[in-house]
Design brief:
The complex is a heterodimer of chains A (about 150) and B (about 110).
Chain A lengths: L4 E10 L4 H13 L6 H22 L6 E9 L3 E8 L7 H4 L16 H7 L3 E7 L3 E9 L6
Antiparallel strand pairs in A: 1-2, 2-3, 3-5, 4-5
Helix pairs in contact in A: 1-2, 2-4
Chain B lengths: L3 E6 L2 E10 L1 H18 L3 E12 L1 H16 L3 E5 L3 H9 L7 E3 L4
Parallel strand pairs in B: 2-3, 3-4, 4-5
Antiparallel strand pairs in B: 1-2
Helix pairs in contact in B: 1-2
Classes of the chains: A alpha+beta (about 150), B alpha/beta (about 110).
Chain lengths: ~150, ~110
C-alpha cells in the first residue's frame, strides 16, 4: 500500500530562546493526535528542542532570524520533522555531527545536540550551505498504538 | 518562573533545578550556582533533578560545566533523583561515568 500524507504543518518564529518551549509545544500538539507512546513523544520533543537551540545558538549567534519548523505525518505512521534557518551555515557537517564536538565550549555547550537528534530519530539528514543556512530533517516511524 | 533554589547546610551546597532545563532555562541558573560555589566553597555540590520537567543538551551542558568548575575548586559533585527520562539522557551521554547519581530509596 502506498503511503499517503495525512497531515502537514509549517510555522515560522524568531530565534529567541523562549521559543524553544514554543517549538516543543507545537510538535507535541502535532504528534498527540497520532497517538505516539510517551517515549516517542519525549524523544521527538527533545530532538526538536536540540534543532531549534542550534539555530539560536549557532546559526543566528548574536543576531535574530527566522526559524521554520515543519512536520509531516504519513499513513504508515512515519513522521518527518524539519527545522530550517537562514543563518551562517555549517562549514563541515560531518565534523559538526561528531559527538562532543562544539565550537562554543566556554558557553557550556556539550556538543551532544546532533548525537541526541540522531539517537531520537530513525534518520537524520543535515543539509547546509555556508552563509545560506541549514536544514535538519528527522524521520521517525511511530509504533502502533497498543489498545 | 524561578527555576533554581540554592540551599547550603553542613558542607553541602544543594542546587535544586526546576522546570525546563533547555538553553532558555539554564541561562540564569549557571552564574547563580557558580557564584554560590565560589562564595561558600562547599565540600559537595548536589544537583537535585527531581523537579526538572524537561532537559536537553543545554541542561547536560549546565551539569558538565558545573562539574568542571567544581573539580577545579576541589568540590565533589553528585546528581540527585533524575527522572527516568533525564537519567536516560545522562546515561546516553556518559555523564553517569563521571558524576555519581544518588537516588531516593524506594
Amino acid at each position: 500500500m502506498k503511503k499517503t500524507l495525512t497531515n502537514e504543518i509549517k510555522c515560522s518564529f524568531l530565534s529567541l530562546s523562549q521559543n524553544e518551549s514554543l517549538a516543543r509545544g507545537i510538535i507535541s500538539s502535532f504528534l498527540l493526535p497520532l497517538d505516539p507512546d510517551i517515549e516517542e513523544l519525549a524523544d521527538l520533543r527533545c530532538a526538536v528542542s536540540e534543532a531549534v537551540t542550534n539555530c539560536i545558538v549557532h546559526a543566528y549567534a548574536g543576531t535574530v532570524g527566522t526559524i521554520t519548523l515543519s512536520a509531516r505525518a504519513y499513513s504508515d505512521r512515519t513522521v518527518k520533522i524539519s527545522v530550517a534557518d537562514k543563518g551562517c551555515g555549517i562549514d563541515d557537517v560531518a565534523k559538526a555531527r561528531q559527538p562532543l564536538y562544539t565550537t562554543l565550549p566556554d558557553e557550556d555547550r556539550c556538543g551532544m545536540g546532533f548525537s541526541i537528534m540522531e539517537s531520537f530519530s530513525d534518520r537524520l539528514t543535515v543539509t547546509s550551505r555556508t552563509g545560506k543556512g541549514t536544514k535538519v530533517t528527522m524521520t521517525r516511524k511511530l509504533s502502533s498504538p497498543t489498545t | 518562573m524561578e527555576n533554581l533554589i540554592l540551599d547550603f547546610s553542613g558542607d553541602t551546597l544543594t542546587a535544586v533545578l526546576m522546570g525546563d532545563m533547555d538553553h532558555h532555562g539554564v541561562a540564569g541558573v549557571r552564574t547563580q550556582i557558580d557564584d554560590a560555589m565560589f562564595r561558600l566553597m562547599p565540600k559537595i555540590l548536589c544537583i537535585e533533578l527531581s523537579g526538572v520537567e524537561f532537559m536537553d543538551s543545554s541542561g547536560l551542558g549546565l551539569i558538565l560545566g558545573r562539574y568542571q568548575k567544581a573539580s577545579d575548586l576541589g568540590i565533589e559533585v553528585m546528581l540527585s533523583n533524575p527522572s527516568p527520562r533525564t537519567e536516560r539522557l545522562i546515561v546516553m551521554t556518559g555523564i553517569d561515568k563521571m558524576i555519581k547519581i544518588k537516588k531516593k530509596e524506594a
